[in-house]
Amino acid sequence: MKPVTYGLGIKNRMKEFDVEKFSSMSKNVTKDIVINENGALTINVPGNKNPIEDVRKIRVTKGVACAINEEVMVEGYGAKLDRDIELEEGATLILNKVLTGGTGYVFSTRNVVLGRNASLTIYETITDGKFIRHHTNTTLTDNATLRHNTIFHTTAEHDIKSAVKVDGTNAKAQLVARGVVENNAKGLFLGSVNIGKDAAGGIGHQKADVLLLGDNAIGEAVPILEVENDDVVCSHGATISKIDDEMLLYVMSRGVSLEDAKKVIVNGFLGVEE
User: For a FRET experiment, which of 19, 81, 166, 202 has its CA 20 to 30 Å from that of 226?
Assistant: First the structure.
């Protein structure tokens, strides 16, 4: 039997663009940021022809608490976005990120390591793009905590993954995603939590919901749990749905147009306030 695979045809997508345009993008990425005092930081990557995050690594030192607000706008052909994040013992980081893909190809990989008693909370919004692949890989040690919250909205193709490896005891991982897929678009969210045999007391929760707008829209929500220890608490859930006709009629009965009614329902689904 062949192994089960998930995805939206990344190999086929590779045939559609010139890899040479991406080959030199990471050469100038040498900047590392070390955060050794409490506070906040803003990282802004404005739209340009070949945008790339100029921060290759972020390290938060022992016991430090900070917040990072980041906005990346892609214009032109595409972008290659790679980053490592390390939180030392007892460090706390809140990361707020907005990634706007424009009409380009975006390939983003984020590798995260949380030290003992460290805590990372991610709130990110991913929109637009002809094709976006955004993958996050996180390793948790003793008593580390990850809360990863993702919103995505696509009219093309999104391939989003958050993979967690729990190596320490009493570590916690929570993955929550909500996505909207329009018209002929495709959207995938894959969340995975791997709890090792020595990771007693681990907690892993996953929830992914995808809303389809259009008969040809394709959505996948794939929660994966791999547990090698009996002393853990884990759960997962996923839904793929369309706008309920009765709800749509109810909103329109309040004097709202069809398009505005859809917008109200989508914003409610994503938890967006205007």
Answer: 81
Write out the E strands in 128-273: 131-140, 145-154, 157-166, 172-182, 186-195, 203-213, 218-227, 233-242
How many helices (H) does the chain have, and how many strands (E)? 4, 16
Residues 97 and 124 in one domain: yes
Percent of the chain residues topping a pLDDT of 70: 85
**How does pLDDT run across 170-185, given as a tens digit for each residue?**
999 999 999 999 999 9
Do both 164 and 258 map to the same domain?
no
Reading the block at residue 71, the tokens are 């906005």
pTM of the predicted model as reported, rounded to 2 decimal places: 0.88
Structural domain boundaries, residue 225 = 10-242
DSSP category for residue 49: S
pLDDT digits (tens, 9 = 90+) for 8-58: 444 444 445 554 555 444 444 557 899 999 999 888 776 655 555 567 899
Tokens of 121: 């909370």
How many other CB atoms are there within 10 angstroms of residue 259's CB atom? 8
List the structure tokens of 156: 């093309």
Helix (H) or strand (E) holding 11: helix 10-14
For residue 199, give Cα distances in angstroms to 88, 149, 240: 19, 23, 32
Closest CA relative to residue 95, chosen from 62, 63, 72, 127:
72
Please give the backbone phi and psi of residue 22, each rounded to the nearest 5 degrees, phi first: -100, -15
Quick check: is 5 in a domain?
A: no
Distance CA 209, CA 98 (A): 19
What three-state secondary structure class fits 37?
coil
